[in-house]
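Justification of computing resources. Each target in the renewal requires a structure prediction run like the one illustrated here; the chain below, 236 residues long, is used simply to show the kind of job we budget for.
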Amino acid sequence: MTKLETFLDALEKSQTPDDIQSSVEAIRDAYGISNAVYHAVNVGPRPYAALTYSPEWMQYYHDRKYVRVDPVVSGAMRQFHPMEWKQLDWSSKGSREFLGEAISAGVASQGLSIPIRGPNGQFALFTVNDNCNDESWEKFSEEYKRDMMLISHYIHKKVVDIFVPEDEQTLAKLSPREKDTLKYLSLGLNRGQISEKLKISEHTLRVYIDSARHKLGALNTVHAVITAYSKGLLSF
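Resulting structure tokens:
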């Protein structure tokens, strides 16, 4: 089994917040990185986090109110796509001070953060980071970014299962064709290839994509695919 398959198999058995914490630690160890973090702002009755940062750093972050100058947080509030830390705006004095403190505390200088939005206004953030050089991080990101995207949304789904009563969870009902369309998009097929596989015109394919996006409340196709994953609507 691949690292991803091994992790997802273990995650599926998670039933408690402690199990999620163990899963986050397992991600760090399996992928050989410094830290992994899942933070849900409003999934349950109170914010929930599973992470590998030290308690001392988390208290220091809170005491210094670094959330106000953390470019990862501000960036996550504005977009849906994965964010490479190097591409964020660290130009302000407060952000530079925060970054220096974070690196000294072992948070690491390279990072990838993935915003997660649920169907009922839920918001969470998944982050992995490391202290490797630029070349090594670029290689890691190219090889494992898709893994991290899938992992982030599977963790979120499991956290929702644990904290949100089943009768309060809402699932979009996608047609088989809509599911097939999103599945093939997630596998990297272009629209022409998908049309050929499903034996439909590209115009009809666009109708399925737009319909799926509307049902999932997604802003774009990538968001639709990720949302479908996070709700467990796609199977392979």
